[in-house]
């Protein structure tokens, strides 16, 4: 895209958009903002106020809400939703003030979706999660020619639109900068797992499969559920299976280059799996549960698969994955999942919603 745009990038404020990333959504917003700025676009990041100061930040909240209202899936703090409504209610007017050429929405707060439809201003909403009851209907009712949606996999598209995918929803695979995940042809003698330490990411299955396969394992990631860790993982840690905490991207990249393979163990309908392509870029074959979009993203040439939550089958997949030549996963990433490919697709969609919204914008200026 030759035109340089003013872009409002709206992130979810649960965590700061800063390293070390707590999850894939934070990494996506961070690298998208950097990538758009590298192409000359002017990006304002609507996010938690304690996000990386290199960006121009318009805070949705002064600090990320997980600091004061730690999220627990079973019992969310009842004070949280009124807080988010108040702050998103204020932010929506700044986001859709007309000061931006396009809004790229990485949040799922209903106020942003509804304001996009109400104003008719150009907006692209990226859906990073499977549908859930509180928001599914709002997304369905607000997408239109000026408010398009993207999903991260064909599998996710079918989940969001089981009755038929509308023309306003497009698959845009997540992408990474391969230079940040250098390839290594040498293989270590241990496996690696990385992600949020919580049951639906399945690190307990990775631990048990590694034990059955007779291979060492290093686990990295943000401690989201301490009780789960203490019960399901800590009792099995020893010299061969270790939890290494949270590290930044450069350090994780180095650890990946030292490993023999990566374990990907989603226990939910994982829409993509950003960490899997980071591992693949580093040259790691994948042993994975065949859950969500895992097979679509990893491909048979870069990984081996086991039925969801089948630990014995995953142990077999570990042994088989170690025979995969390391250039195959790297090649899959450079062909399909680069940051440049992702931003090319977003820029194309920006152009489409801007063109669709131009009559609305012309009327607003005339008024």
Write the layout of secondary structure elements.
Blueprint: E1 6-10, H1 24-38, E2 42-48, E3 56-61, H2 80-95, E4 102-105, H3 110-119, E5 123-127, H4 133-142, E6 147-151, H5 154-160, E7 169-171, E8 190-194, H6 203-213, E9 216-220, H7 226-232, E10 241-243, H8 249-258, E11 261-264, H9 274-281, E12 286-289, H10 294-298, E13 303-306, H11 311-321, H12 327-336, H13 339-366
Parallel strand pairs: 1-2, 1-4, 2-3, 4-5, 5-6, 6-7, 8-9, 8-11, 9-10, 11-12, 12-13
Give your account of this protein's structure.
- 40% of the residues lie in helices and 16% in strands.
- The protein is of the alpha/beta class and 367 residues long.
- It folds into two domains: 6-175 and 339-366, Rossmann fold (3-Layer(aba) Sandwich); 178-336, Rossmann fold (3-Layer(aba) Sandwich), CATH 3.40.50.2000.
- Residues 362-367 have low confidence and may be disordered.
Main sheet summary:
7 strands, parallel
Strand content: 15-25%
In CATH, the topology of the largest domain is named Rossmann fold
Mean pLDDT comes to 94
Structural class, from secondary structure content? Answer: alpha/beta
Rg over CA atoms:
21 Å
CATH architecture assignment of the largest domain: 3-Layer(aba) Sandwich
Largest sheet, order of strands side by side? 3-2-1-4-5-6-7
């Amino acid at each position: 895209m030759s035109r340089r745009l003013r872009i409002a990038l709206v992130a979810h404020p649960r965590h700061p958009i800063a390293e070390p990333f707590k999850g894939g959504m934070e990494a996506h917003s961070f690298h998208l903002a950097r990538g758009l700025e590298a192409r000359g676009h002017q990006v304002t990041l609507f996010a938690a106020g304690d996000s990386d100061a290199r960006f121009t930040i318009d805070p949705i909240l002064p600090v990320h809400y997980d600091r004061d209202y730690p999220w627990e899936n079973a019992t969310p703090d009842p004070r949280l939703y009124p807080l988010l409504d108040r702050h998103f209610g204020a932010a929506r007017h700044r986001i859709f003030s007309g000061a931006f050429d396009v809004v790229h929405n990485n949040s799922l707060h209903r106020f942003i979706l509804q304001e996009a439809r109400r104003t008719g201003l150009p907006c692209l909403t990226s859906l990073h999660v499977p549908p859930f009851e509180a928001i599914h209907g709002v997304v369905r009712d607000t997408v239109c020619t000026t408010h398009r949606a993207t999903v991260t996999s064909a599998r996710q598209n079918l989940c969001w639109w089981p009755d038929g995918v509308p023309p306003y929803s497009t698959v845009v695979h997540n992408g990474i900068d391969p230079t940040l995940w250098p390839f290594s042809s040498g293989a270590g003698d241990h496996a690696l797992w990385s992600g949020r330490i919580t049951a639906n990411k399945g690190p307990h299955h990775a631990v048990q499969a590694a034990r059955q396969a007779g291979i060492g394992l290093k686990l990295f990631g943000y401690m989201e559920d301490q009780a789960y860790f203490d019960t399901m993982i800590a009792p099995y840690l020893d010299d061969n299976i270790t939890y290494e905490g949270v590290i930044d991207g450069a350090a994780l990249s180095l650890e990946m280059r030292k490993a023999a393979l990566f374990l990907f163990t989603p226990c939910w309908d994982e829409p993509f799996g950003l960490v899997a392509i980071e591992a693949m870029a580093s040259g790691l074959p994948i042993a994975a549960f065949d859950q969500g979009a895992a097979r679509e993203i990893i491909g048979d040439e870069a990984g081996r698969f086991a039925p969801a939550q089948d630990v014995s089958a995953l142990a077999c997949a570990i042994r088989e994955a170690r025979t995969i030549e390391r250039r195959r996963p790297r090649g899959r990433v450079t062909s399909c999942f680069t940051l440049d490919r992702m931003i090319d697709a977003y820029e194309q969609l920006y152009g489409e919603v801007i063109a669709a919204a131009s009559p609305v914008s012309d009327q607003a200026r005339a008024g």
